[in-house]
Design goal:
heterotrimer, A alpha+beta (about 325), B alpha+beta (about 210), C alpha+beta (about 750), A: about 325 residues, alpha+beta, Uridine Diphospho-n-acetylenolpyruvylglucosamine Reductase, domain 2, Enolase-like, domain 1, four-stranded antiparallel β-sheet, 12 helices, globular, C: about 750 residues, Aldehyde Oxidoreductase, domain 3, Aldehyde Oxidoreductase, domain 4, seven-stranded mixed β-sheet, five-stranded mixed β-sheet, 31 strands, about 25% strand, binds flavin-adenine dinucleotide, binds iron/sulfur cluster, binds FE2/S2 (inorganic) cluster
């Protein structure tokens, strides 16, 4: 790892000013992703801005939503009373990620900003457009078991690895982004982007900006019927092959409203709006779940090693819906 | 003090310059002359050391250390290589095994992904700080009793994690223990015995 | 509240749980420098030019060593590895020439004053290569790559060639075991210190102290007394630490070049191509039987890989020659050299690979015959070694089948596929047999009793996890008749009497015999010293002989009159001695040549399989072992548990992946190469027949470490078949293979 300059920021403005001024500076929060990337030479910031002294840890009820500060720890969010009560889906998604030690370090902002786990991205001797634009995509014709089936391009077929983000996408959360001059609020689903022609950018955050909070609307009835199903190669401490966040607003056996998002399938948390719309007003039957799942798979495309996802994904969607409905 | 001053509270201009040079090993022309002179005298290591190091106050197992370290030093390497506390293990160095688990201000974290410089003013507990003198911590005793290890290499991490697991209230049944211990890999496969050890400590109750 | 050690607790447990135990990289050596290896980025070709300037100029760097400036290693071949075809036992000679044999091969060693600086400088070393096309893809085996063709790879035929083909009921199938990597938790490491030109101290992660010492001796042409090697604690190995690998020699080179002690620790990524792995093996099995399940023929073929410079082979097909009574057995074994590092024995070695195929095929045959898999195995039970007709030293496999079957409730299951359910999960039961030769090697031990009644036993062996010091202490305690707490078993030092390597499950039988024998000699010596003592001379007793004494609780007693006794302490005092010591070497008996010795373990597994997502949960594991006498119950149970956990990894998740376009590893880390975690492992029930084998060794112990794993993966595959009706013949059984 190269040596670097380390500063502790005491105000938000410190951070955004420094980020604006110095293109080689990077925020460090929990460090669980960034330190790893630096060890491998994938990231080499010359300056680290430690933001842990900022007061961005709060989780609080506001009118119509719950606001979670960007520095709230994954373990804390997962067990926060408001979250457990109103968004058990988020709690479950967080619990299924990483390990308790990592969740004790990882922050909400850092989790959103974590980079793909594509092995080619991590190995600096391999081609990778995301790490080194223009070198090609190592995974495209390489080992791509973990890779995307939705929205990928030849430029990059990586997936976003977060579990938390899948739940937040399903819950219609928003992201609060601050720069030195302004603050903006965007839909969570607009935060991450598809690979497109510039896979080196994972999201829509601009230079000089930082994440300060996420807000989750709570005026809904999804808490009773929601689940996060994560399928992976071992039963814990592993990234998802496929994950599904499913939340249903039910009235007896009827579905008023549905929310569905997937992880492990795209460059961003993947909302399944067609399937959601299909389920609206339908009976909660296995048949309907299967149909919804089939609709969700339209436009899916597999590569050499991830063909199984074309079956595993719809099966997992149907299974998650079944679990959520049965609650 | 205004924000800008706080931002770079420790670095003056020349230091920052040197910093870039010594790490990137380029642009000798930009180097302040007294540093070039020192380099001519074959002192560049010494200087680099001086300029790249930062002060750190850290309490480890009740002892306060005042140190000067490079910001890139991880907590794990600080413990193992500089403080000679080799009880915390390195099993991967990338957050993927749990062998390096320590407590920072009472919470279990991975020391291999923690920069030491970010622990300024914090209290660290490692496996060496768990027993009270000769008296083993109940979790340590339970690991021996249940043969919760074979080669012993993952063990300090397992024990630090297990103690936290109980303290957090995540040891109420075997499945919960397994979930909350999943971040500690044991290649020897002592898992069932570890679960037994934790279960026993939890059932005995008391503060641990 | 203190903890009181109980008998059976590990003797080094307190050091381990308090963090005091010093593993290889943890010895505090003054003036230590840090070495970091730089790996090649191509898999075949040669280094054209190297740029080490910026690394050399980086802060704190003491030296950058490459093939261009390496100090000569006198034991290496002058002028580089002269390799045309792979040679058995020819390890990679680090920095000996520009030739690249595999991706990640060490091309430079950076030594710096701190770990961080060495790591950083290592990233600055750059090489240009003359690249050639590598082969790492097994599809090329037999096409562009030819198998090594020497006498030992001749077809091995008992009875009729491919005799199974003539049987009324036949099974033919292909099975694949992918690359698996030992990945002990402690990464391999070496600390090397030169004391002058011809003397070194080495701290080395090794399962084989004396062999590591010999390797250092022969590399640098040093005398035995000038190579001191320590390995007091070894953080696992599973076979990876049985050999001495190039990084050890590299550390010695670095220390020589810089004149400072050098510590070199491999990174986890380097653990995948520096210290061996279980090689990819494609197997074909043909089984033929009569309609009532009598085996007529077995044909077992295995095709595996090795490196370009070194031949590696293992017993992948042997299990088919010895496990069942079968007249016609044909085995074929081929090894193809690829641009990879050399594989090595990994727990259960080739036998585990072979057992997956054979024991899966047997299950397939049982279903085809509509016969219970245990019944099929009992029908073909070998009462004597089918290879040579020799009797078994001991064999309690039948008993093990029964023990395990009863425990898991084998008879109560419904054997029809997809017939059992728990909720929506499919339930499956599976079983398989593990077998491994029971070996005993030469071993030496020293025993020294002190005037205070304590006993020191020594041997140059290392303990990578089985609890060697604990079981040896137990053997010494039983042998000498003193409490375990009075015994210290010292290991991990090459200067001690030569102990065996810790491999092939032979430590307990080999070293245990030496400890047993040395205790017998020490008792004789004590008896000799005691026999003239006054207490043993009364009106009724005259001139007792050594064999008239027994030893209990630290006393030497007259067998015929136990009131006549003398403490060991007294014996020494009366003879004016501070200590008495003996050294014994123990070898396998002549008698043993008349027998065949095997250890056995029967695995029973219950799995739950999710019908639509393909998730497999190991719900229950019962292992029933015939491993001879159980010396130390707790550690023996742990061995079986550990093997089962390794088996869960092999069955469900472990798979090393190389991108053939580059010949480079793509999942060489613990996040992508999955090994079992807590949630993958249920309680594991370990049962032992516990019958001694005194023909093999005076301790009665056979082996345990390998059989704990051998066959396990087949039991899982068989259970998955029972649950789902899907036969997975390519490991690991990941969700994608079941949907
Ligand atoms: C072995 C392992 C297993 C894991 N398994 C999972 C898993 O199963 N599921 C899962 O979801 N995750 C998993 N993770 C990832 C983990 O959740 C992330 O590493 C973590 O969430 C990152 O948070 P952090 O605070 O540590 O981020 P850091 O490492 O501190 O930062 C990561 C990035 O975010 C930027 N950043 C941080 N905060 C802000 C902010 N407020 N505004 C703008 N930029 C910011 C940093 O500049 C950096 O680029 C795993 C990690 C490891 C090491
Ligand atoms: S998938 Fe994306 S991250 Fe992976 S190699 Fe291709 S470009 Fe890089
Ligand atoms: S060494 Fe820190 S998690 Fe493995
Ligand atoms: S005891 Fe060896 S890795 Fe856990």
């Amino acid at each position: 790892m190269i040596n670097f300059n380390y500063v502790q920021a005491s105000t938000q403005k410190n951070v955004t000013d420094t980020l604006m001024k110095d293109g080689t500076a990077q925020i460090i929060a929990g460090g669980t992703n960034l330190v790893d990337l630096m060890k491998r030479g994938v990231a080499a910031p010359q300056k680290l801005i430690d933001i842990n002294n900022l007061s961005l840890k709060n989780i609080e009820q506001q009118k119509g939503f719950v606001r979670i500060g960007a520095l709230a720890l994954n373990s804390v969010v997962a067990e926060n009373e408001l979250v457990v009560q109103k968004f058990p889906l988020l709690s479950k998604a967080l619990q299924s990620g990483a390990s308790q030690q990592l969740r004790n370090m990882a922050t909400v902002g850092g989790n959103m900003m974590q980079r793909t786990r594509c092995s080619y991205f991590y190995d600096t001797t391999m081609p990778c457009n995301k790490r080194n634009p223009g070198t090609g995509c190592g995974a495209l014709k390489g080992y791509n078991r973990m890779h995307a089936i939705f929205g990928a391009t030849e430029n990059c077929i990586a997936v976003h690895p977060s579990d938390m983000c899948v739940a937040l996408a399903a819950l219609n959360a928003s992201v609060i982004i601050s720069s030195s001059r302004s603050e903006r609020k965007i839909a969570f689903t607009d935060f991450h982007k598809l690979a497109g022609t510039n896979p080196e950018k994972d999201n829509t955050l601009q230079r000089g900006e930082m994440i300060t909070a996420v807000e989750i609307p709570d005026a809904n009835n999804f808490a009773q019927h929601s689940t996060y199903l994560k399928i992976r190669d071992r039963s814990s401490y592993a990234f998802a092959l496929i994950s599904v966040a499913a939340a249903l607003d039910m009235n007896g056996g009827k579905i008023n409203n549905a929310r569905l998002a997937m992880g492990g399938v795209a460059h961003k948390p993947w909302r399944l709006t067609t399937a959601e719309n299909f389920l609206k007003g339908k009976a909660a039957t296995e048949e309907n779940f299967k149909q919804a799942a089939a609709l969700a798979m339209k436009d899916a495309k597999a590569y050499r090693h991830n063909n199984f996802k074309l079956t595993l994904a719809p099966n997992s969607i149907a299974e998650a819906l079944k679990i959520a409905a049965a609650m | 003090m205004n924000d800008n001053n706080k931002d770079d509270k420790t670095l003056n201009h020349s230091r920052r310059q040197f910093f870039k040079i010594s790490t990137a090993l380029t642009a000798v022309a930009l180097t302040p002359s007294y540093i070039l002179k020192a380099a001519d005298d074959n002192m560049d290591d010494k200087i680099a050391e001086l300029f790249e190091k930062r002060d750190l106050n850290i309490e480890v197992n009740g002892i306060v250390h005042t140190l000067s370290i490079e910001p890139r030093v991880t907590l794990l390497d600080l413990l193992r290589e500089q403080l000679k506390l080799t009880g915390s293990k390195k099993g991967c160095d990338h957050g993927q095994c749990g062998a390096c688990t320590v407590h920072v201000n009472g919470q279990r974290v991975l020391s291999c992904l923690s920069l030491a410089i970010m622990q300024d003013g914090k209290k660290i507990t490692t496996i060496e700080g768990l027993a009270k003198g000769d008296e083993l911590h109940p979790m340590q005793a339970a690991f021996i009793k249940h043969d919760g290890f074979q080669c012993g290499y993952c063990t300090p991490g397992q024990i630090m994690s297990a103690v936290a697991c109980v303290r957090e209230g995540h040891a109420n049944n075997e499945d919960e223990i397994r979930s909350y211990m999943a971040g500690n890999i044991c290649r020897c496969g002592a898992y069932p015995n570890i679960v037994d050890a934790i279960t026993e400590v939890k059932q005995k109750g008391g503060t641990i | 509240m203190g903890y009181y050690f109980e008998d059976g607790d590990r003797v080094n447990g307190k050091d381990i749980v308090t963090g005091k135990a010093k593993y290889t990289a943890e010895h505090d050596i003054p003036n230590l420098a840090y070495g970091v290896l730089v790996g090649s980025t191509i898999a075949k070709g040669s280094i054209a030019t190297m740029d080490t300037k910026s690394a050399e100029n980086a802060p704190g760097v003491l030296s950058v060593i490459t093939h261009l400036n390496t100090p000569v290693v006198p034991g290496y071949d002058a002028g580089g590895l002269p390799i045309k075809t792979p040679v058995s036992g020819k390890n990679l000679q680090v920095f000996n020439g520009p030739t690249i044999y595999f991706n990640g091969q060490p091309i430079a060693l950076v030594v710096a004053d701190t770990y961080e600086r060495a790591l950083f400088a290592a990233t600055l070393v750059k090489a240009q290569y003359n690249k050639e096309a590598q082969v790492t893809d097994f599809l090329e085996a037999g096409k562009t790559v030819k198998a090594i063709d020497t006498a030992k790879y001749k077809d091995n035929i008992r009875g009729e060639v491919d005799g199974y083909k003539n049987a009324p009921v036949k099974i033919e199938a292909e099975y694949i075991v992918p690359i698996e990597v030992h990945n002990p938790m402690e990464m391999h490491a070496t600390i090397a210190l030169w004391d002058g030109d011809d003397k070194v101290t080495v701290y080395e992660k090794t399962q084989n102290i004396k062999s590591a010492q010999r390797n250092v001796m022969s590399a640098f042409k040093l005398k035995e007394e000038n190579v001191r090697l320590y390995a007091p604690f070894v953080g696992g190995g599973f076979g990876s630490a049985l050999r001495t690998w190039p990084h050890c020699i590299a550390a010695l080179i670095g220390a020589k070049k810089t004149g400072r002690p050098v510590k070199l620790v491999l990174g986890r990524d380097q653990m995948f191509n520096s210290v061996g792995y279980r090689p990819y093996t494609l197997q074909k099995i043909g089984l033929g039987a009569t309609a009532d399940g009598i085996l007529i023929g077995i044909t077992h073929e295995a095709n595996s890989i090795t490196s370009m410079y070194e031949e590696f082979n293992e017993g992948s097909v042997n299990i088919s020659r010895s496990l069942y009574n079968c007249p016609n057995v044909t085995t074929r074994y081929k090894v193809f050299p690829f641009n990879v590092s050399t594989p090595t024995y990994m727990r259960g070695p080739g036998e585990a690979t072979g057992a997956f195929a054979l024991e899966s095929a047997l299950d397939e045959l049982a279903y085809k015959l509509n016969m219970d898999p245990i019944e099929l195995r009992l029908k073909n039970y070998a009462e004597k070694d089918p290879e040579n007709g020799k009797p078994y030293s001991t064999k309690f496999l039948k008993e093990a089948y029964k023990l395990g079957a009863d425990k898991i409730g084998w008879a109560q299951r419904n054997p029809a596929v997809r017939s059992m359910k728990e909720g929506e999960w499919l339930v499956g039961f599976g079983m398989s047999t593990g077998v491994f030769g029971a070996y005993r090697n030469n071993a030496k031990a020293l025993a020294r009793i002190f005037a205070d009644g304590t006993l020191l036993v020594q041997s140059a062996v290392s303990d990578s996890g089985p609890g060697t010091a604990t079981s040896m202490t137990k053997i010494a305690a039983d042998g000498m008749g003193i409490a375990s707490s009075k015994i210290t078993f010292q290991l991990g030092d090459s200067a001690l009497p030569p102990g065996p390597g810790q491999g092939g499950s032979s430590t307990t039988a080999s070293l245990g015999s030496a400890v047993h024998d040395v205790c017998e000699s020490l008792k004789k010596k004590l008896a000799e010293l005691a026999k003239d003592a006054a207490v043993f001379h009364t009106e009724t007793i005259h001139n007792p002989k050594p064999e008239d004494f027994v030893f209990e609780n630290g006393y030497i007693l007259l067998a015929t009159d136990r009131t006549k006794k003398l403490s060991f302490t007294e014996v020494l005092k009366q003879n004016n001695l501070n200590q008495v010591e003996v050294t014994e070497e123990s070898k396998g008996s002549e008698e043993m040549k008349k027998y065949t010795a095997f250890s056995y373990n029967v695995h029973f597994v219950k799995v739950l399989v999710h019908p639509t997502t393909g998730v497999v949960k190991i719900n229950r594991v019962v292992a029933a072992a015939d491993a001879g006498k159980i010396i130390s119950y707790k550690t023996a149970e742990s061995q079986i548990i550990g093997g089962a956990v390794g088996g869960i990894g092999m069955a469900l998740m472990e798979e090393g992946v190389i991108d053939d376009r580059y010949g480079r590893w793509v999942n060489n880390n613990f996040a992508d190469y999955h090994v079992p975690v807590h949630t993958d492992v249920p309680h594991i029930e370990a049962l032992f027949v516990n019958q001694p084998d005194y023909i093999l060794s005076p301790t009665g112990a056979k082996g345990m470490g390998e059989i704990a794993l051998i066959g396990f993966a087949a039991a899982v595959a068989n259970a998955v078949y029972h649950a789902t009706g899907k036969r997975v013949r390519e490991l690991p059984i990941t969700p994608d293979k079941l949907i």
